[in-house]
TrEMBL record:
Domain of life: Bacteria
PROSITE patterns in alphabetical order: PROKAR_LIPOPROTEIN
UniProt cross-references to CDD domains, sorted A to Z: PBP1_ChvE (cd19994)
Subcellular location, record wording: Cell envelope
InterPro entries hit by this protein: Bact_Solute-Bind_Prot2 (IPR050555), ChvE-like (IPR049784), Peripla_BP_I (IPR028082), SBP_2_dom (IPR025997)
Lineage: Bacteria, Bacillati, Actinomycetota, Actinomycetes, Micrococcales
Source organism: Glutamicibacter ardleyensis
Cleaved signal peptide residues: 1-24
Main location: other
Protein's UniProt name: Sugar ABC transporter substrate-binding protein
Length: 388
C-alpha cells in the first residue's frame, strides 16, 4: 500500500485526511498528516525512525548510536537502529528493510557516501525525509538535511595541535620562531568518506606554509590524500603503512620522524604501535613522535594522559545526537529543520542544508575540563582506558 505524502510537501484536503486515516489503520502512514502551515501531525509514539549506523568496531559509532537511539526514545519515537559492520551491501539491505518496515524518517551515517542512491530513491518515492548523520551522502538529490561538525575546522585543529606539539606554534596559534627541518608523515581517513576530504583540506591548508618554507618535511613525499588514505579508517592498515614508511624512508636511524598527522584515534594507535616496534620508544618523552587523533576514544584519551599520544579532537556525540533529534522533530511536525550552513556541503547534486557543531582539541592539560567535568567520561574510566 502506498505511503501518504509528508505534510511539508503537500496541502492536505478533507479527502486526503480520510485517506490518511485509512492508511494509518494499515500501518503505512507518514509522520505528518497536515501541512507546515498548521495541519495536524502524529504523536511521536506513532512515528518510526530508522537509524543506520556504519559500524560497531569503532567506539565512536557505538556512542553515536546509543546517543541517537536513547534521545529519540526519550522524545517518544519508535526507533529501529542497525549497525552495518562497515559492509556496504549490509547497510543497503538494512535501509531497504527500514523502508519496508514502515520507517517515517531515516537518519543515516553512511559507510560509502556514494553507495546508497537506490535506497534513498526508494525512500524519496515514499516521501521519507533523509537526515544525513555526520557523513555527507553524495551523488543524490534525495538528502534533505545534514547534521555534522565543522569538518574543515576539525582538520585545522588536528594540524594546529601537531604544530603545537612540535613547538612551532604556541597555545594561541602564534609562531614560536622554532626552526626546522622537522620530519612529518601524513595520514588521511577513508577516501570514500566525504568527511575525510574536509579533514584533509583543513589540515593541509594549515600545514602548507610550514611545508612550503621547509620547516616541515614529508620525506616520503606522500602529500596527496590518495596516497595517505586509510580505507575504512583501519587501525591495522595504518600500522602496516607506517611500517612501510619507516622501512622505506627512515631505516638505519639516520633520520627520524618528529610528528604524524593522524585523522582518527584508531589510526593513531596503529601508527603508535608501528613506531614503538621500530624503536621510537613508548612515550613522547622516550622519543615517540607527536601524533594527533580524533574522536576522543577512551583508549586514546588514556594514552594522551600517559604521554603516548599527543592530542585528539573531541566531537561531543551527545550534541550531534541532539541535533539529529531536533531535525527529526521538525520533520515530524511538518516543518523544515533550521540550518546554520547552506553553502558548504555540495554533494554533487545539491547543496545540502546543514547544521554544524563545534569541536575541541584535547591534550593532557584539558582532559579533565573537557571530558570529565562535562560528564562524557569519568576520571576512573580515563585512568583505566575503558568505559564501564
Amino acid at each position: 500500500m502506498a505511503r501518504n505524502n509528508w505534510a511539508r510537501r503537500a496541502v492536505v484536503t478533507f479527502g486526503s485526511l480520510a485517506l490518511i486515516g485509512s492508511l494509518a489503520a494499515c500501518g503505512g502512514g507518514g509522520a505528518g498528516s497536515g501541512d507546515a502551515a498548521g495541519g495536524d501531525s502524529k504523536a511521536p509514539e506513532d512515528i518510526q525512525v530508522g537509524v543506520a549506523m556504519p559500524t560497531e568496531t569503532s567506539e565512536r559509532w557505538i556512542a553515536d548510536g546509543e546517543a541517537v537511539k536513547s534521545q529519540l526514545e526519550e522524545a517518544g519515537y519508535e526507533v529501529f537502529m542497525q549497525f552495518a559492520n562497515d559492509d556496504i551491501p549490509t547497510q543497503q539491505q538494512q535501509i531497504d528493510q527500514m523502508i519496508t518496515k514502515g520507517a517515517d524518517i531515516l537518519v543515516v551515517a553512511s559507510i560509502d557516501g556514494t553507495a546508497l542512491s537506490s535506497q534513498l530513491q526508494a525512500a524519496a518515492d515514499q516521501d521519507i525525509p533523509i537526515i544525513s548523520y555526520d557523513r555527507l551522502i553524495n551523488g543524490t538529490e534525495n538528502v534533505d538535511f545534514y547534521v555534522t561538525f565543522d569538518n574543515y575546522k576539525v582538520g585545522v585543529q588536528q594540524a594546529t595541535s601537531l604544530l603545537t606539539g612540535l613547538g612551532l606554534v604556541d597555545d594561541k596559534g602564534e609562531k614560536t620562531g622554532k626552526k626546522g627541518p622537522l620530519n612529518i608523515e601524513l595520514f588521511a581517513g577513508s577516501i570514500d568518506d566525504n568527511n575525510a576530504h574536509f579533514f584533509w583540506k583543513g589540515a593541509m591548508d594549515t600545514l602548507k606554509p610550514f611545508m612550503d618554507d621547509g620547516t616541515l618535511v614529508v620525506k616520503s613525499k606522500q602529500t596527496k590524500i590518495e596516497q595517505a588514505a586509510t580505507l575504512r579508517w583501519s587501525q591495522e592498515e595504518a600500522q602496516s603503512r607506517m611500517e612501510d614508511l619507516i622501512t622505506a624512508h627512515y631505516a638505519g636511524g639516520k633520520t627520524k620522524i618528529d610528528g604524524v598527522l593522524s585523522p582518527f584515534d584508531g589510526i593513531s594507535r596503529g601508527i603508535q604501535t608501528a613506531l614503538t616496534n621500530a624503536g621510537y620508544g613508548k612515550s613522547i618523552k622516550d622519543g615517540l613522535p607527536i601524533i594527533t587523533g580524533q574522536d576522543a576514544e577512551i583508549a586514546s584519551v588514556k594514552l594522551i594522559q600517559d604521554g603516548v599520544q599527543y592530542s585528539t579532537i573531541f566531537k561531543d556525540t551527545r550534541k550531534l545526537a541532539s541535533q539529529a533529534v531536533t531535525a527529526v522533530k521538525s520533520y515530524a511536525e511538518g516543518n523544515e529543520p533550521e540550518a546554520n550552513d547552506t553553502e558548504s556541503y555540495d554533494n554533487g547534486k545539491k547543496v545540502v542544508p546543514s547544521f554544524l557543531l563545534d569541536s575541541d582539541i584535547v591534550t593532557a592539560d584539558n582532559i579533565s575540563s573537557l571530558l570529565v567535568d562535562s560528564g562524557y567520561y569519568t576520571a576512573a574510566e580515563v585512568k583505566a582506558g575503558q568505559t564501564k
